[in-house]
TrEMBL record:
Belongs to the GST superfamily. Kappa family. It comes from Linnemannia exigua. The active site is at S16. The gene is GSTK1_2. This is Glutathione S-transferase kappa. Pfam families: DSBA.
Length: 223
């Protein structure tokens, strides 16, 4: 079936610093792309890496050094604040399952919950339930009961666990090998005709593919 509107599905994991940077930049660009449907789909990056026998950049000292310097340069050019955390990597299963639950039950607040600076600005360990609770507190007006319910779902709800695994398996099946990955589908394209764009530096190509405006990295902070 042909798509009536263009769409972008972003597979992400909060452990990825390029996901953090990509999310911040993408949300600036997409303001000029109102006719493109956008979905942020949680996945477990470690699960993807294990399945396809890939290794993350931080597994290699030279690549890790380059990654940190590269992210600092992107931050300076775009104005997106960034601080590499001292504790890296961490286990993101819990926060990613919480986001899976929020996508289902708090759709209007879901993206706000992704757009947090706890890890890559404040260096706080988001694998811990109390840190997650503190991060979500302003969004839920300090409704600790509701926040605790989502933490509980993430730990005990088999449907949420199953959904999160399905998203990860789906990402692998679609050829995802890292984060962030954007699957771009043009208006009128048939199912399965998505184009895969990997990383936080492919927005110009994505915009050209969809025929939408692109202001460039040096202009993005003004959007």
């Amino acid at each position: 079936m042909a798509a009536a509107r263009a769409s972008i599905v972003c597979y992400y994991d909060l452990i990825s610093p390029y996901t953090y940077m990509g999310f911040k930049l993408f949300n600036r660009f997409r303001k000029q792309w109102p006719n493109v449907d956008v979905t942020f789909r949680p996945m477990l990056l470690g699960g993807v890496m294990n399945e396809i026998k890939n290794q993350p950049l931080f597994a290699f000292p030279s690549k890790k050094s380059h990654m940190i310097a590269d992210l600092d340069r992107i931050s300076k050019v775009t104005g997106v604040p960034f601080t590499f955390p001292q504790k890296f990597p961490i286990n993101t299963v819990l926060p990613m399952r919480v986001l899976t639950a929020l996508q289902v039950y708090e759709a209007e607040k879901y993206e706000q919950c992704i757009d947090k600076d706890e890890y890559f600005i404040n260096g706080r360990d988001i694998s811990q339930a109390d840190i997650i609770s503190q991060a979500l507190s302003p969004i839920f007006s300090t409704d600790t009961t509701k926040i605790e319910s989502y933490l509980q779902r993430a730990s005990q709800d088999q449907e949420i666990k199953k959904m999160f695994k399905q998203y990860t398996d789906e990402a692998i099946a679609k050829g995802v090998f890292g984060a962030p990955t954007f699957l771009v589908r043009q208006a009128g394209a048939k199912e399965g005709e998505e184009m895969l764009f990997f990383g936080s530096d492919r927005f110009e190509m994505m915009a050209a593919t969809l025929g939408v405006p692109y202001a460039g990295l040096t202009s993005v902070s003004k959007l």
